[in-house]
Amino acid sequence: xxDSPMVFFRFLQLAICPSPRAIPPRITGSLACLIWAALxxxxxxxxxPPAELNERTNVVLIMxxxxxxxxxxxxxxxxxxxxxxxxxxxxxxxFNHYYSQPLCTPxxxxxxxxxxxxxxxxxxxxxxxxxxxxGHHFQDAGYTTLVAGKWQLLGAENYPPRFRQQGTWPADxxxxxHCLWQVDRLGSRYWNPLLCVDGTNxxxxxxxxxxxxxCDYVLRFLEENRQRPFLVYYPMILVHDPFEPTxxxxxxxxxxxxxxxxxxxxxxxxxVGRVVDKLxxxxxxxxxxxxxxxxxxxxxSLRSQFGERTIQGGKxxxxxxxxxxxxxxxxxxxxxxVRVSNDLVDSTDFLPTCLEAAGVQVPAGLDGRxxxxxxxxxxxxxxxxxxxxxxxxxxxxxxxxxxxxxRWKLYGDGRFYDVEQDVLEQTPLELPAQGSxxxxxxxxxxxxxASFPEEGQSLLRFQxxxxxx
Length: 469
Description:
Blueprint: H1 4-16, H2 28-47, H3 51-54, E1 58-64, H4 83-91, E2 93-99, H5 104-113, H6 117-120, H7 134-140, E3 144-150, E4 177-181, E5 194-197, E6 200-203, H8 210-224, E7 230-235, H9 257-281, E8 288-294, E9 303-306, E10 309-312, H10 320-323, E11 324-325, E12 327-330, E13 339-346, H11 350-357, H12 372-375, E14 386-390, E15 400-404, E16 408-411, E17 416-418, H13 437-450
Parallel strand pairs: 1-7, 1-8, 2-13, 3-4, 3-7
Antiparallel strand pairs: 2-11, 2-12, 4-5, 5-6, 8-12, 9-10, 14-15, 15-16, 16-17
Helix pairs in contact: 1-2, 8-9
């Protein structure tokens, strides 16, 4: 390599000054070395980050689309096959009381910003442009960031004109790379998919399965960035309707919605396993926190057997069937294995938890609370309650507000339930007597409701204003 500067200089000299007399010979050697140092050495360092960056914790945050806790073996299902996610739970921690928003976009915005929907949710399918996301925080900390799967945060072509492109592009949300369904265009998500890959829409053929393309992209990203700290946010395309056969189905012509859904759950599990296997292959498992969850309950047309109960899918509803989700965490060497937590977790809690795991300062003013101490086997500061503001179409629908703990649930309109005894919320309770456990819970949840604004936002009175400073 000792002649490399001179070889490089001669190439540069011929490209810029074809005449050998253009640069005096006496300065050729020193100038070549200066140019070599200025252009080539920084590139070499870009390929090999400082050791302190290499030792940072990676984060892989996976979120399935439209699947409740009743569809996972580690939660007690015998109807669905989820061996890889069950394995993650066995190697790490499973939470029994994680609650999302009842619908996809509201949950995604809470997860990405750490804030309740009452503060920053203005329209379905939009992420306001002034919001600081998990991508921004990790980028600013020196991480390489990827989002892959389902976006639905810009306002695609299928929405009314006043909402189109009023949200946020992936690159403006803090992500260096992306491979996504439904950015500015719709198209198919499964067979014959239309995907936006790093800003370019690509229409793929009928033999191509969209979730495979996205997963392959995630695996390549892991390969390419194994020597850098990274954030992978993987909001999966599966298992949202339409309920179609997967590449592992016996026939592409299968029309039974329930059977196709069960196959899609299994295929979703398979893709999660591919990501986990790639981390192991690259020797990154012990430096990577993997979190798996869902965004809302199962589609309302589906019925799942869960022990002795039959659970009707609750997507869009504020009952447990619409909001109670799986949450599994795995981080070999850090999270003790075969742990089960009954602590409350909310979808705003992902942002502070991931930042704290990566050693990144958690900003003030979030509604989310880190559950990293619990992952490490410490008591932490578990939530005493969580709050939900659900208003998926704020331009035309009223909001539903509630606060709850593991057992009790109080709505903003006064309805009060013992969810442990009345999971379908069919019989509201009267105001409990003073001194009772129920009255103490009612008073606690009343204060929780009062700690948040009663009214949220609407796109009609809020306009996006670019990336926050």
